[in-house]
Design a protein that fits this description.
- By secondary structure, the protein is of the alpha+beta class.
- It has three domains: 53 residues; 298 residues, no CATH class; 130 residues, Jelly Rolls (Sandwich).
- It contains 16 helices and 16 strands.
- Strands 2, 3, 5, 8, 9, 10 and 14 form a seven-stranded antiparallel β-sheet that branches. The protein has a four-stranded antiparallel β-sheet with strand order 1-16-6-11.
Length: 540
């Protein structure tokens, strides 16, 4: 998995939501009008708009007191179903987990990662399925046992019943999550050995943009491809003019630690010959560049140690020999923040491999400025928030689906939506992007039956026309499913930050998670309200 945080464009996401939600509401309204006119004539037309108005009337007249009372009732019903037994499973897992998670003594950082990964996965795999079962089963069971009649006979709106269920399950799930999260935090701190305590932090990086030059020094789109299938890293050739150029924005003195610029590197080596293995790595050099002042200041050669944190603490004051090669050489001292950061606040760093016949691979996140660390508690709390958000989303989806189908069907439907949202979003993106050859279902079957490979063009004729039309319809339906099904993969990214020792980014992880959850509140309320309003509550 690549760890390349990309800032989230919330404005584009808001426009996309408005387009999809608005289009869906218009289509739903037109369908309801057509069905109403066909079945009831002009009265059906009036009934549709009366039903639309009824939702807004109930939203305006909702009572927080009634919603909270329904939430308390929901919590009590859940507790009577022995929901707290989940803590027994949780306790058993943590009692014996330490036996199986002991890592290698020479890699304490990996041991820390395994502890954090176990805790976060154990919490999410226990809390989310439990809340899914409760949210999907509660309302259909009340309808089957007719206990809901004690509620609907009182002055309670249908929308309040839905909101009370959602809020009650959310409060209950939040309480369980807080207890498990607190126990998990204490367990991690007790299990981590003293030699790895320094790895238990939340690093706050500043990432830059990366560009390359080739062996002649000319700008290049990327570095050298060494034959790796995974095109995540590009490589620069040693002892040539090939460079990887990092440009960091918004750099100032507050990013320094103890009057030093802290960089962290995780480059990957590709050797064309064995070389000097006693050094422990390939030599490389950093050059700080300020184009505005025409300054280029080199650092001392460094050794790239793979699979470890190469934390580079560079003094703020760098000395450079001037008039090199002449008799009277002058040593000039430059300040990184005063002299090498340009007028726009950008810091440019060039990376050069110094050994001939060796190559150094890097991607955008492989070199970053490490600003003062935050405590592990900060990143861990955000990771728990990353479990809470999909839990709330699952609760909303479960309650919504349970408003129009029975419990077992609601559980299966919600579980399918969650699994597709976790596992199939990337595959759907590949199909819809058009990059996948023979991505249409009908075209794939046609090529399979006729033994035609994916590079051969389909023969012109009516068969091709039918295939194009049908596959186009399937792709449009898949696009609609892609917009409706939430992307649960966004939430798992928060866990990856903490496991790798980073603070969870607001723009790349927290913001998209919050907006994704918030985007489903109104659609779920609308569907739940009309489904519960049209459902026959007398039926078992």
């Amino acid at each position: 998995m690549s760890f390349d945080p990309i800032p989230f464009n919330w404005l584009e996401a808001l426009k996309h939501f408005a387009f999809v939600f608005g289009s869906s509401m218009v289509i739903a309204l037109v369908v309801c009008l057509v069905v109403g006119v066909i079945t009831r004539g002009t009265k059906g037309f009036v009934d549709v708009f009366r039903g639309v108005l009824d939702f807004f009337v109930q939203i305006i007249h909702i009572s927080p007191r009634r919603i909270w009372s329904l939430s308390v009732l929901t919590i009590r019903e859940s507790l009577r179903q022995k929901i707290l037994f989940v803590f027994i499973i949780f306790a058993v897992l943590f009692m014996f987990a330490g036996w199986f998670l002991a890592g290698a003594a020479d890699r304490p950082d990996l041991q820390v990662q395994s502890y954090i990964d176990f805790v976060l996965k154990a919490i999410s795999w226990l809390v989310i399925p439990i809340m899914l079962l409760l949210a999907c089963w509660s309302l259909p069971e009340d309808i089957r046992l007719r206990t809901i009649h004690t509620v609907v006979t009182k002055p309670v709106y249908r929308i309040e019943i839905v909101m009370g269920r959602m809020l009650g399950f959310t409060v209950l799930g939040t309480a369980i999550l807080l207890v498990m999260g607190g126990v998990g935090y204490i367990w991690i701190n007790r299990q981590v050995p003293d030699t790895a305590k320094e790895s238990l932090v939340s690093k706050v990086p500043i990432y830059g943009d990366i560009s390359f030059t080739n062996r002649e020094g000319a700008p290049a789109a990327s570095g050298i491809n060494v034959g790796d299938i995974w095109m995540y890293r590009s490589y620069i050739e040693g002892a040539t003019k090939a460079r990887a150029i990092y440009k960091f924005e918004g750099v100032d003195e507050s990013d320094a630690i103890d009057d030093k610029l802290n960089l962290q590197a995780s480059f990957e080596a590709f050797r064309t010959h064995k070389g000097d293995m006693e050094k422990g790595g390939i030599l490389y050099e950093l050059t700080f560049v300020n184009e505005d002042k025409g300054l280029r200041v080199d650092t001392s050669p460094m050794i790239n140690k793979e699979y470890t944190e190469n934390r580079l603490q560079i003094d703020r004051k760098l000395s450079q020999k001037k008039n090199e090669g002449e008799a009277d050489q002058e040593v000039v001292t430059y300040d990184i923040f005063d002299d090498l950061v340009d007028k726009d606040g950008n810091l440019t760093v060039e990376v050069a491999c110094l050994e001939a016949g060796q190559l150094l691979g890097m991607a955008r996140p492989d070199l970053f400025i490490r600003t003062p660390d935050r405590s592990f508690m900060v990143g861990y709390s955000k990771a728990i928030l990353g479990i809470w958000l999909p839990m709330v989303l699952v609760i909303m989806l479960g309650v919504t689906v349970s408003c129009f189908v029975k419990g077992p069907v609601a559980i299966l439907t919600t579980f399918t939506v969650v699994m597709v949202g976790f596992m199939s979003k990337e595959y759907m993106n590949e199909i819809l992007s058009g990059k996948m050859q023979a991505s249409g279902a009908i075209e794939a079957w046609y090529r399979l039956l006729t033994h035609m490979n994916s590079q051969t063009e389909l023969p012109n004729g009516p068969v091709k026309g039918i295939i194009v039309v049908v596959d186009g319809g399937i792709r449009n339906f898949l696009w609609l499913c892609q917009q409706i099904i939430p992307n649960f993969g966004i939430f798992s990214n928060m866990r990856e930050y903490v496991i790798k020792g980073f603070d969870v980014s607001w723009s790349a992880a927290l913001l998209p998670g919050l907006l994704t959850t918030a985007a489903y509140i109104l659609p779920c309320l609308l569907i739940s309200f009309y489904s519960l309003k049209l459902r026959e509550l007398e039926a078992k």
